[in-house]
Specification:
Elements lengths: L4 H8 L16 H15 L3 H14 L4 H13 L3 H14 L8 H10 L3 H12 L6 H24 L8 E2 L10 E6 L5 E8 L3 E8 L9 E2 L9 E7 L5 E7 L8 E9 L2 E2 L3 E2 L10 E6 L5 E6 L9 E6 L10 E2 L10 E6 L5 E6 L9 E6 L10 E2 L13 E3 L5 E6 L9 E6 L9 E10 L9 E6 L5 E6 L5 E7 L4 E6 L6 E5 L9 E3 L2 E3 L7 E3 L17 H13 L4 E7 L6 H21 L7 E5 L12 H7 L1 E8 L1
Parallel strand pairs: 22-28, 22-29, 31-32
Antiparallel strand pairs: 1-21, 2-3, 3-4, 4-5, 6-7, 7-8, 8-9, 8-10, 11-12, 12-13, 13-14, 15-16, 16-17, 17-18, 19-20, 20-21, 22-25, 23-24, 23-26, 26-27, 30-33, 31-33
Helix pairs in contact: 1-4, 2-3, 3-4, 4-5, 5-6, 6-7, 7-8
């Protein structure tokens, strides 16, 4: 527990005011002796014991104002705000003039209970004192502004939100501190930092069995050492762990970011993320985007907007991390910003700040990214998620509702424990669904490491790009309510493209899609699922351009490749009209490729009308499959 003894003792020692009424010199000797003993006990940090002694002092002299004031300060240090406020009120009732200096800590404890209106009244009374020194005046004005902010937030969000954190229990929490939770996309693996032997930090993991969390056990492999490992983030697929290592032998600064990979034998030996990420200063609090393309973290490096700023680095095609970008003055302030967490929707970021408007100390904020990749204005998560104390790291499960954080609430097993709660509805991220599958060679069925890219069909903007593992397996999280185009590229293979109506998929559900790739060889053929035409016409729709540009890229990467574009229709209408339409559509595709610099001799067009169906033309679903455009390799 944080000890603020200089501040605390200023609230314990007798006031210099000597008003008419209470006179500390007239306190009974027994009460005064007990009081002195209580002060000594408090100075040693034994606050509970000191409160008991102060109780005895109050029994010995029922008008002992200083004892009540001291009890109030002790309860405040223990975050027992109601008991603190009640003892302040008893002292005020005995002598309001003598106790006037304590209106400020009284106001702070009222705010600790969420009674911001009463807190504002109390601090306003305190500020009316013309004799306040500059330090007291500054502290009171600061608190007054936080109370006004809190009341404005109550008007904005209302007071209906029920905040009821639940301790995750003995399987995860212990007599020592657990903190910094991190969760896989499926919600089945929870990784935490545990402080062991009072000084060392190690990683532990617990697995969800469908009903409860299993016992948290140390991560296997080479990741836990005698050094301090902490502030970890497990990738959504559970295969990477990026964390903070302080004072490591190969460290570049005070604290660096490291990565460990999950293997058959446990977690690999950590590797420093290198000079593109780490500096001679302090780097910590990593958070990976769900596609593992972006790494958010906090750093004290110079050149920022405050002491600690949040940065983001993008992973390059070669797997290395680019030079980090400061997230700018909308998010970063002259204070400290830290503990970023990017949700599975890849659009919602949570972080802590003591520079943004808040309740005092470090508060939690939410900021959202639009479809153009621009971040909006951060919003304070409000009381009671934020309090007058310092808030720490927060994560939200893929369901967008369940939040996890560390706290030392009354039911803690010891120190900090991991808790969960339901996030307020307006502060939740977008609902997501998960797409998993395998990229493999169509002939050999062997898995192929590949890049899988998803594009929002409505905007044409790439929303996610992930690299499969060595076996070709991938996992992607997507916002619900949209349709997406899937494309896969691998050298010496035809690209894969497919569009999928995922707008009707239920949130938090899993969609399986395995992707076969064909080698670049004569007669290899793919359906261009993302080529679209106006109904009954051969005019290309704008949504087709990303797919057409993939063909251009394929042709440029393989200069000897020759292809034929083949058009097909369903059987609705006259056969001659269908043949003509399919031929014109295939020509429209080749004309686009030629307009982009592809030599005309490398592309040809042919239309077969409705003569080569791949599905039954008696259903709309079958007719839709028959209306298609294909790419066939002529020579390589």
């Amino acid at each position: 527990m944080k000890k603020l003894l200089p501040l605390l003792l200023s609230f314990l020692l007798p006031s210099i005011l000597h008003a008419q009424g209470y006179d500390p010199a007239k306190v009974s000797k027994k009460a005064a002796a007990l009081y002195s003993k209580g002060i000594e006990t408090a100075e040693s940090g034994r606050f509970r014991e000191a409160i008991s002694i102060m109780d005895e002092a109050c029994k010995a002299d029922r008008n002992f104002v200083d004892a009540y004031l001291s009890k109030a300060g002790l309860y405040g240090e223990l975050k027992e705000y109601r008991a603190s406020a009640e003892n302040y009120e008893k002292a005020f009732g005995m002598d309001s003039v003598y106790s006037h200096d304590y209106k400020l800590p009284y106001a702070i404890n009222l705010a600790g209970m969420g009674e911001f209106g009463k807190a504002l009244d109390a601090v306003s009374v305190f500020l009316k004192d013309p004799s306040l020194n500059p330090s007291s005046l500054k502290a009171a004005e600061y608190r007054k502004n936080t109370f006004i902010f809190a009341l404005e937030q109550q008007k904005k969000h209302g007071q209906d939100y029920h905040f009821a954190p639940v301790n995750l229990g003995d399987s995860i929490n212990s007599a020592v501190s657990e903190y910094y939770p991190s969760l896989t996309l499926d919600g089945k693996t929870l990784v935490i930092t545990r402080r062991v032997r009072n000084f060392n930090e190690d990683f532990y993991a617990s697995n969800w069995n469908g009903k409860s969390w299993g016992k948290a056990l140390p991560l296997q492999g080479e990741i836990n050492t005698e050094q301090n490992e902490g502030a970890q983030n497990i990738s959504q697929d559970g295969n990477w762990l990026i964390f903070t290592g302080c004072n490591f032998p190969d460290g570049m600064g005070e604290c660096d970011l490291y990565i460990s990979l999950k293997t058959r034998n446990g977690w690999s030996e950590p590797q420093n993320l290198g000079r593109s990420i780490n500096t001679e200063f302090w780097e910590s609090a990593p958070s990976l985007s769900p596609d593992k393309r972006d790494l958010y973290f906090a750093s004290r490096r110079p050149g920022g907007f405050g002491g600690i700023d949040i940065y983001v680095s993008h992973r390059l095609p070669n797997g290395k991390w680019d030079i980090p970008e400061n997230m700018g003055p909308v998010i970063n302030t002259s204070g400290d910003e830290s503990c970023p967490f990017i949700h599975a929707d890849n659009h919602t970021l949570y972080f802590t700040s003591n520079g943004q408007p808040g309740y005092g100390g470090d508060d939690l904020f939410i900021v959202r990214k639009n479809d153009q990749g621009e971040w909006g204005k951060p919003e304070n998560l409000g009381y009671p998620i934020n309090t007058i104390e310092n808030e720490g790291s927060l994560i939200i499960a893929a369901d967008g509702r369940t939040a996890y954080y560390a706290s030392d609430r009354a039911d803690t097993r010891g120190g900090l424990d991991i808790y969960s709660f339901q996030m307020r509805e307006d502060a939740r991220p977008s609902r997501t669904l998960w797409v998993e599958g395998k990229v493999f060679d169509k002939k050999t069925k062997e898995g192929l490491p590949s890049a899988v890219e998803l594009t929002d069909l409505s905007t044409g903007i790439s929303v996610s790009k992930v690299q499969t593992d060595e076996s070709g397996d991938y996992l992607i999280t997507l916002a619900v309510g949209k349709d997406y185009a899937f494309s896969v590229n691998r050298k010496n293979y035809l690209f894969y493209s497919g569009n999928f109506d995922l707008s009707g998929q239920a949130p938090d559900s899993t969609y399986r899609m395995d992707i076969p790739l064909q080698r670049l060889e004569a007669n290899a053929n793919i359906v261009l699922n993302n080529i679209f035409f106006e109904s009954g016409k051969f005019t290309l729709k704008q949504e087709s351009f990303p797919e057409l540009d993939r063909i251009v890229r394929l042709m440029n990467e393989n200069p000897s490749l020759s292809i034929q574009i083949i058009g097909h229709t369903d059987n609705v209408g006259k056969p001659a009209d269908n043949a003509n339409l399919s031929n014109n559509r295939s020509k429209a595709v080749t004309e686009y490729l030629i307009s982009k610099g592809i030599f005309a001799g490398r592309v040809s067009a042919k239309g077969f009308g409705a003569t080569r169906p791949v599905a039954d033309n008696t259903t709309e679903e079958g007719r839709a499959r028959n209306r298609r455009t294909e790419l066939q390799v002529i020579s390589q």
